[in-house]
Design a protein that fits this description.
about 300 residues
Length: about 300
């Protein structure tokens, strides 16, 4: 014990540097977790945590019995699958294309342009999409004048909701997602490409047999982390794009918790749904990590 105390004292300045980040996680991440206890209560703000009636798993049973919750979970899973299937590979493809650019000045300009959308808030993105895709917007005006196609209800037709959300994510986040992949690509041994050229491999063969295998572990780690948030598809973006006409297909767990917890003051049920979402994410991360290790990858832990 004395040796530990002595080590802490000798390295006290390093631990002081650690303190602000540690306090942040304790205050804003761990302490709020105590509030999950209301998922097991009929919580009343007037009675507080200590005096609200304890109901056990009542609200969790409601999660699986309420058809509305099942619909919302399905919407969330479907949208998350679309984002993983279409948005996640775009960052990889964009990284591979940027990696092949040899002009450094041109490469920096392109990188800056694809990074910029990440710094726009979803409010701005939703505003841009609304202005462009509304009935008398730029896109519909072009389709009508150029091709004689009648106005398409992009913002109100339910079948357009999911594709629009995925396209927005691709446009806003794909450039930012290339940062990690480009860092991984920078570590690929250039002699491997030289040997491949000597063996007669063209550019596509080099990408398939050298580049992609070299960043496979990075791809798997990021995919595992993405699976952990499979039920978290983004509240702000969805909330801004929802309207009464597409709510049936667009309502996801995050917006459902908001409507139930904030608007209807059903705090206990909303907390139970949020806790269920976190538990599913934890299970998926652990399962995906074990699966990755079984196939010879390092995983995230």
């Amino acid at each position: 014990m004395a040796s530990v105390a002595g080590k802490l004292w000798n390295e006290r300045y390093l631990y002081l540097l650690l303190l602000p980040g540690l306090l942040y996680f304790i205050i804003y991440r761990y302490v709020p977790m105590l509030g999950n206890v209301i998922a097991f209560q009929d919580f009343s703000p007037f009675q507080g945590f200590l005096h609200s009636d304890w109901v056990g798993l009542k609200h969790f049973k409601k999660v699986f019995e309420d058809r509305e919750v099942i619909r919302v979970i399905w919407n969330t899973l479907y949208l998350s699958f679309l984002q993983i299937a279409f948005a996640f590979p775009v960052s990889i493809a964009l990284s591979l294309m940027l990696n092949e650019v040899r002009g450094e000045r041109y490469k920096r300009v392109v990188q800056s342009l694809v990074y910029l959308p990440h710094f726009l808030s979803w409010v701005v993105v939703a505003g841009i999409v609304t202005v462009m895709l509304k009935s008398d917007g730029i896109v519909n005006h072009f389709l009508q004048t150029g091709f004689g196609i009648p106005a398409i209800p992009f913002l109100t037709a339910p079948h357009w909701f999911m594709p629009l959300i995925v396209l927005e994510v691709i446009w806003k986040e794909s450039g930012w997602g290339t940062i990690i992949f480009l860092a991984a690509l920078a570590g690929v041994n250039p002699h491997l490409y030289e040997a491949a050229v000597v063996d007669g491999a063209n550019k596509w063969r080099q990408i398939w047999h050298i580049t992609l295998p070299s960043i496979r572990s990075t791809i798997i780690i990021l995919l595992i982390l993405r699976l952990g948030s499979v039920l978290d598809v983004g509240f702000e973006q969805i909330f801004l794009m929802l309207n009464p006409l597409n709510k049936e297909i667009g309502d996801v767990l995050d917006t459902y918790v908001y409507y139930k917890g904030i608007q209807n003051s059903d705090f206990s049920f909303a907390t139970a749904v949020g806790l269920f979402k976190s538990l599913v994410g934890l299970i998926l991360i652990v399962g995906a990590n074990k699966l990755a290790k079984r196939f010879g990858e390092e995983g995230i832990y």
